[in-house]
Write a structure and sequence with these properties.
It is a single chain. By secondary structure, the chain is mostly helical. It has a domain of 85 residues. 50% of the residues lie in helices and 8% in strands. It contains 3 helices and 4 strands, in the order E-E-H-H-E-E-H. A two-stranded antiparallel sheet has the order 1-2. Helix 1 packs across helix 2 and helix 1 packs antiparallel against helix 3.
């Protein structure tokens, strides 16, 4: 115990002295040196699990948006075919299909940067990245392998 005078009133106060030195800080540092690499390893493992799942989910959602876009183009194309009485193989202009879409063909874009090909009457529209809606839907429903997330053949 140490006696200290109060700076404002001058009365003496008994204060417990702090212990300095000792091994307290050394034990704390030793624990920190052991715990930090373990925490970094746990975070690395969690990231290795989570990042591929996030990438897979993003790819799946982009594929779904592209399939929806191609189906909208296909419906607009079917309307034009029905109105004009087109035979299979007839070419339909972009302007005719664009008039049937709310934002036109310019408003329908593939999230992965693919370009849409309208194809002649009787054929599905296609994307340069995902293929036709039928192909993209088959790709979407194929199961994943347990070894690395690659699609099974």
């Amino acid at each position: 115990m140490a006696v200290v005078k109060c700076p404002s009133c001058g009365t003496e106060i008994n204060v417990v002295e702090k212990k300095s030195g000792g091994l307290g800080w050394a034990v704390g540092c030793l624990v920190a040196v052991c715990v930090i690499p373990v925490m970094v390893a746990i975070i690395g493992i969690l990231a290795a699990i989570a990042i591929p799942n996030f990438v897979r989910a993003r790819d799946m959602s982009q594929r779904n948006v592209c399939i929806t876009n191609m189906r909208m183009i296909g419906e607009a194309k079917a309307q034009v075919e029905a109105e004009k009485g087109c035979a299979p193989g007839d070419v339909i202009s972009d302007q005719e299909i664009s008039q049937k879409l709310p934002a036109g063909l310019a408003g329908v874009t593939c999230p992965k940067g693919g370009r849409y090909v309208l194809n002649p009457a009787g054929k599905e529209p296609a994307c340069s990245v995902h293929g036709t809606p039928t192909q993209a839907a088959k790709e979407r429903t194929r199961p994943y392998n347990s070894s690395g997330g690659n699609r099974s053949p």
